[in-house]
Amino acid sequence: MPNRKPTFFSFCKAICFMVFSNVALVTSKSTIEPCSNSDSCNALLGYTLYTDLKVAEVASLFQVDPISILTANAIDISYPDVENHILPSQLFLKIPIICSCVDGIRKSVSTHYKTRPQDTLSSISDSVYAGLVSPDQIREANSIADPSVLDVGENLVVPLPCTCFNGTDNELPAIYLSYVVKPVDTLAGIAASYSTTITDLMNVNAMGSTSIKAGDILAVPLSACASNFPNYASDHGLIVPNGSYAITASHCVQCSCGQGSSNLYCMPASLAVSCSSMQCKSSNLMLGNVTVQQSSAGCKVTSCAYGGYANGTIITWLSSSLRPRCPGPQQFPPLVAPPTDVTKDSVFAPAPAPQSDGATTKVPKTSTVPKISTAPSTGSISVLPPAAAPIGSFSDASILMNSVAALPTALMIYFLIKLISPF
Ligand SMILES: *[C@@H]1O[C@H](CO)[C@@H](O)[C@H](O)[C@H]1NC(C)=O
Ligand SMILES: *[C@@H]1O[C@H](CO)[C@@H](O)[C@H](O)[C@H]1NC(C)=O
Ligand SMILES: *[C@@H]1O[C@H](CO)[C@@H](O)[C@H](O)[C@H]1NC(C)=O
Ligand SMILES: *[C@@H]1O[C@H](CO)[C@@H](O)[C@H](O)[C@H]1NC(C)=O
C-alpha cells in the first residue's frame, strides 16, 4: 500500500535536492505524532549503551525505575544485586517511558540530564542518549543561547521521541518503540526484527519510500497485551509488549504478555514485600490464580485477576466463565540472565536485513506483503490497514535546525517551500 499521506517530506525531498543538490544537508527524520489531549501512554525507547553502565545508572539517565528496564527486556530480576549488574557497552535495550502531549506533539519530557565536565550538546545527544535527541532539540528545550558554553551541573531537559497512536496498530493493541536507525539497518531488517512488515512501518511512519538513513527515528509498533484498568488507577493504560513483563502497583504486581495470547496476565511480583491484600474478595484465590472445573456443560473457569492500582490498593476481580474447553497452563515469556556481553546476547540487537536484497526492495513489490504474515494469531485480521490506523508524519523538521552552519541554507529552503506550498 503506498503512502496514504503525501507528506511535506516527500515534497521537500524532490524540491530540495533538485535545487540544492550541491549542498550536503543533514536530513535525520523522525516520526512526529500530533496530539491534542492530555492523555499519556506507555512507550519504549530503543537505547544503545555508549559505555558499560550499571542497570541503576541506565535507569538514572532516563529517570525510570531500574526494575522496569529489566522487566521490559525480560531480564531475570531475581538475579542477586541485579540493579548493580554492569551492562556492556553497545547493548541494545528497550527503555519504558511515559509519552505525553507537549505543545501539540507527542514527546517524553521527564528526562533531565546533569551536565558533567567535557560535555557538549553533541556528546550528550549522540553519545549519552544514543541519537534519541539532537543537539538542537536540547538547545531549544533549554533555551541555550550559546551551546559552546555549558556549565557543569546544569540540569537540562532532554526531550525524547515517542508515539502513542492510540495504543493500537491495525486495530490490535500495540506499544511503540522509538528506534534510531543504525548504518547497517534496512527497513526490511527492522521489520523482521520486530515481527512487523515493511508496509506497516511505512504506514505508521507515513514514509513515501523504503529508504532510511542512519540517525532517522522510526516509530516501530510492537504487538502487546493491553489492560483495561479504570481511569482512577495510577497504572491506567498499562500495556506490555509481547514477550516481556512490567512491574506495577508499587513493585507488588508483575504482569506479563506471553506468546500466543493478547491477554495481560498479572500475579504477585517476586519482589513483593509490603503490599496490600492480593486476595480476591470472598474467595481463597490470590491474584493470578485460576481454577478449572470440568463438567458436561464445559469448563468452568474461575480466576482472580488484577484490576489496577488505586489509592495504594490493589484492585482484584473475581470472575467465572463457562468455556468450551479448559485453558492450558499460563505461558510465561522466557527470562534471560542479565547480559554480560553483546554478541552472545544477540537477542537484544536488532538484526540487519534478513536477505541481502532487503536494502533495495522496491515499493510495489513490498507493498504486496500482506500484514497477515506476521499478525498475531488471535482475533480477526484485516489485510489492508483500516482507515483509523495510526498515521505518523515522517518529519523533516530537523532539516531546519540540524546545525547552526546549515541555517542559512535551511532558511532559504524554508522560504522557498513557504512560497510554493499551500501550507
Ligand atoms: C482507540 O482504540 C480503541 C480501542 O483500544 C478504539 O475503541 C478507539 O476507537 C480508538 N480510537 C481512535 C481514534 O482510533
Ligand atoms: C495462587 O497464587 C499464589 C501466588 O501466586 C501461588 O503461590 C499459589 O500456589 C496459587 N494457588 C493456586 C491454587 O493456584
Ligand atoms: C482515593 O482517595 C481519594 C481521597 O482519599 C478519594 O477521593 C477517591 O475517591 C479514592 N479513589 C478510589 C478509587 O478509591
Ligand atoms: C508474540 O511473539 C511471538 C514470537 O516472539 C509470536 O509467535 C506470537 O504470536 C506473538 N504473540 C502475539 C499476541 O503477538
From TrEMBL:
PROSITE patterns: LYSM
Signal sequence coordinates: 1-28
A Pfam entry, by short name: LysM2_CERK1_LYK3_4_5
Keywords: Signal
Low complexity bias spans: 360-371
Annotated region (Disordered), positions in chain: 346-371
Domain LysM: 111-158, 177-220
Name of this protein: LysM domain-containing GPI-anchored protein 1-like
Gene for this chain: LOC111314976
